[in-house]
Amino acid sequence: MNVESKSQQAYRFIRDRIDDGRYVPGYRLVLGQIAGELEVSVVPVREAIRRLEAEGLVTFERNVGAQVALIKETEYLHTMQTLSIVEGAATALSAPYLMPEHLRRAREINERMRRSLDDFDPHRFTELNLEFHAVLFEECPNPHILDLVHRGWNRMRMLRDSSFSFVPGRARESVAEHERILDLLERGADPLEIELAARSHRTATLDAMLAYQAKHKHPHPEPLAATESRMP
Amino acid sequence: MNVESKSQQAYRFIRDRIDDGRYVPGYRLVLGQIAGELEVSVVPVREAIRRLEAEGLVTFERNVGAQVALIKETEYLHTMQTLSIVEGAATALSAPYLMPEHLRRAREINERMRRSLDDFDPHRFTELNLEFHAVLFEECPNPHILDLVHRGWNRMRMLRDSSFSFVPGRARESVAEHERILDLLERGADPLEIELAARSHRTATLDAMLAYQAKHKHPHPEPLAATESRMP
DNA sequence: CTGCTTGCGATCGTATACGATTTCGCCGCG
DNA sequence: CGCGGCGAAATCGTATACGATCGCAAGCAG
Fold this sequence. Notes:
The structure is a homodimer of 232-residue chains. With 232 residues, chain A is mainly alpha-helical.
């Protein structure tokens, strides 16, 4: 009965293709073409693209057209930094609501992450990584914060290939940090301590990436207040 | 030459009316009616409303229509909590980039806030309050975070009447807290200290509101992890 | 009187049509 | 050979049209 609206359908269509990499950043979204593939008219497609634009996944230029958002490096760093903050907060806020069951599941996922490392399966690793944090956020009392976290993840997913795998050794540290966060949660540590641990879990990744890139590619990707936000 | 697109025009039209209170929360947005007032067709109006929906200012129900978002109390609290986090972070991130000139202007605005209190001008007070924080964020190196702050402010503005004025005495405390934040910035305090000060500046308002409401209206607006996020 | 059904008006959702704008290749000129 | 202008094709932006859906009120049965 209640079939989803065509604009919703178009939204999902495009969104799926962005998510799974068929539409790479920079890919030109031509209204008529997408409308043709979907067998709908251009109006719903325009709405869908507008929505994607508001979410930051797509850029839209008047009379020119839309394309999958190109994330510049500094943009990427800013998103990482923002993520570190909202993820840290979300973890701390969720802490009081996490049951032993959640922690058990999280540990189990983390174990699988460790194993995926031994199997050299980076794709599986990043997938499990998302799952891990998703478990921690399941009981987050503030859906707003959660929304911000998801926005950040979407953004990140668009560059999935420039994630962990690019910094040798970082993944293993990541697993260890997960362990530490779980320990803090388990013993009901101070929320601030949890927040900072979760935050630096992400900023450590960021810093590792910066260091790695500085050594291997550009001399300086651009100074950022990232490290200043790290807080010891 | 390059007149703004009609959908942009419609967006601004609606947005203005929401901002200045002509469209109150719950106000029903009828496509044809708005299109008529603007002398455009419904298609651009739909796009505008979709965008407002993505920004959270408007809710849209299929085959029923759009209305200015009704913010429930818990929603409000969540937004405040989120704001406390992102504002705190934004303040800390901006700290290294603030020149004495900025601090001077901020102090001056804060003084005017104090005076507006003596004149019993709450509208002016809230206006200056935004200005104050805007100055602190002028040099924020992370536009992402800033964007989140602005989103939060938009949300808040929709309930402007339930802000400071409802908690007697809170405004004066707020001025004092501004002073304290400025002091921390001036002496180049630890970023974490600045962040927590800015954060608790907002959560203090939240807590004051909750306490006030608990005493005067409802027994319990609903428990929230707010105080847990406050962090001493 | 109450509750369910039915029909109508209001409004939404989308297709189609067409003018407006941009892009890009082609041509002539320097 | 390069470059500036011109024209056609591609694409966008919006108006209009019309079917689809919802809400509400009137009518009918119990």
